[in-house]
Amino acid sequence: MTEHMQDPLNHPEVQLANGRAYLASFIISMLLMTVGLWLAVTHITTPLGTVLMISFLAGVAVIIQGYFILHMDISHAQMWHTVAMVLFLPLFVVTIGLTAWMFHGLYQRTMIMPPAASSMAHMSPMSH
Known about the structure:
Blueprint: H1 12-16, H2 19-42, H3 47-68, H4 79-110, H5 115-121
């Protein structure tokens, strides 16, 4: 009978667990979310600029959490997790983009504009 009994603490993923990395990821993510909240509350940039900045901060937070918490890097032990993430990200972006496009189209087709608002939309701002 062969011995299969290995110490589970010697597994590479278990050895990667580190309380300091989790704490660093949490603190950095909280700082990024605080900056995003501050951008949204203060209206410093245009609405499109705010959305772009918050999207950038969210992307940075995902990368930081992937590195510190999920330990996604190019090491041999984590190679397939990294490949799975690289293949998943474009699908995720396309899914979110198509969902936003679909809801925008549905909004344009289903939201009825009041008559006063539609007549005001065609008037130039200087004619008031």
